Amino acid sequence: MNFRRSYFGLDNSSNRNEIAGAANGIYTGGGLLGAIFASWSAENLGRKKSIFIGAVLATIGGALQAGCPQHIAAFLVFRFINGLGVGILLPLVPLYQSEVSPPHSRGMMVGFHGICVTIGYASASWAGFGFYFVNASGAQWRLPLAIQAIPALFCALGILFMPESPRWLISRGRAEEALKIVQRLHRDETDPEDVFAFREYQQIKQQYEIDKHNEVSWKEMFVRGSYRKRVIIGAIVMFGSQTTGTTVIANYGPELYSALGFGTTMQLLFSGCYASLALCGNFFNAFTIDYIGRVNALKIGWIGDAIALIGECAALSTFERTGSHAAAVASVFFLFLHIALFAFNIDVTTYVYTSEIFPNHIRAKGMSASIVAYWCSLLIYLEVAPTAFANIGWKFYLVFLSLLVCFIMPLFFYFPESKGLSLEEIARLFNDETTSVRLDAPGMDQEKVDIGNEKKLVSQTEDLQEKA
To answer: Where does the record place the Major facilitator superfamily (MFS) profile domain (predicted)?
Structure first.
């Protein structure tokens, strides 16, 4: 951050805090628009093509930032492009993962989204630490920015070899292709006849037949009770998780450590360790969420982070009054406790839960609405953070604390638990009409006899549709 400020001539600028906020704000604004676009593209272009578009934009934005000329306006434009790409990816990657994962391991599969995000954070933090010792001043900020384009490029190339979502294919009348993909995704040596895969295919298909006559506009999302409840839950999960203050702490970590009297090397070292702890926590969260449950994980994380914020306020208040080094160390401890509670319980859970509570025909809209809430929270918090820390200091954490308490309360009476259920079965939690096919129902031997005939029927139906 300091190297970029020097390059753009902001070291002695009277409005450098506002410009720092704008740099985050314009990235967030791009993300907000990207999330809105994702709801349309996922339905009309498909999950794969939409992810490809987002990854290409993120690659271009990252590369342009790294090669930016000495003009702050150009840098902000490139930040916007980068944010636009990330905004498309953020709702669609977990959405895609949820639609191709089996119910019993969906939490872990979608959890890898959070793991990969924190791998990016950790890589960026350690790259910043490593390049700090490089003598060429341009390399100290250009190369870390360039590195972010590499994973996005791999995503753009990798998605080309991935299967399309079978749920989206069924919605487009491509049932035979969907069946082949479900069989491929759920292949199991203990189930040579693919009975489980075929049951899930039947469940997806029947649920689509139920839902296809329910064309849902954005207005209907907020009018119909079961849809509105989902939108509210998704918004609370995303906005509430950012109200813990974690992203603000991660983005302005070096400045926060500097205010505690730590030098540049320690600031960057703390930031790297902070991100690495987040990565470890995301692994734990991904591998335990299918056992702990989504709502329980959110309860533990949000309540724990509220307690950590109280400790942080107490430590910073003491440091402000006394300048005690012990208080500074305590402040760093509570920041690390805060990210541990967030990463071990919240980060993965937010994407898993919001990607699975919406039915197939509104999943793209619902996930996009949830991510819009996420970007709105970042737009507010990251935009005001530099000015707030400069003017009210540690009292800014009290804003997070008071709002977080408000978000915690609905967890105990409004949020249904969805672990272990298929995406179609989750609809029952919201009293929607659902398919009668159950993945755990008896009668598998009889189904083995009928599967071959059903596969032929699917193929014949598609042939007739093509001839027509």
So the answer is: 1-419
Show the tokens assigned to 366: 């619902």
Q: Which of 1 and 397 is assigned the larger pLDDT?
A: 397
CA separation, residue 252 to residues 20, 22, 108, 245 (Å): 10, 14, 30, 11
Helix, strand, or coil (residue 423): coil
Q: How far apart are CA 18 and CA 269, in angstroms?
A: 26
Residue matched to tokens 């272990």: 420
Domain 11-165+172-430 grouped into CATH 1.20.140.160: no
Distance CA 423, CA 179 (A): 17
Provide the pLDDT for residue 18: 63
Average pLDDT on 372-393 reads 88
Residue 444: what pLDDT?
44
Query: Burial level of 137, CB count in 10 A (0-12/13-18/19+)?
Result: exposed
Considering only residues 139 and 195, tell me which one the structure prediction assigns the higher pLDDT: 195
CA distance 455 to 461: 10
Report how far apart, in Å, the C-alpha atoms of 450 and of each of 192, 341, 443, 456 are. Answer: 14, 49, 11, 10
* Residue 156 or residue 117, greater confidence: 156
Closest listed residue to residue 295, CA positions, set 377, 354, 375: 354
Q: Give helix then strand counts, H and E, for the chain.
A: 21, 0
Sequence-separated (6 or more) residues with CB below 8 Å from residue 457: none
Q: Which amino acid is at 14?
A: S
C-alpha–C-alpha distance, residues 22 and 32, integer Å:
15
d(CA 210, CA 214) in angstroms, rounded, equals 8
Q: Quote the CA–CA distance of 430 and 207 in Å, as a whole number.
A: 15
Type of residue found at 180:
K
Is the pLDDT confidence value at 21 over 70?
Answer: no
d(CA 386, CA 342): 22
Tens of pLDDT, residue by residue over 440-455, are: 544 444 444 454 555 5
What residue spans define the domains of the chain? 11-165+172-430
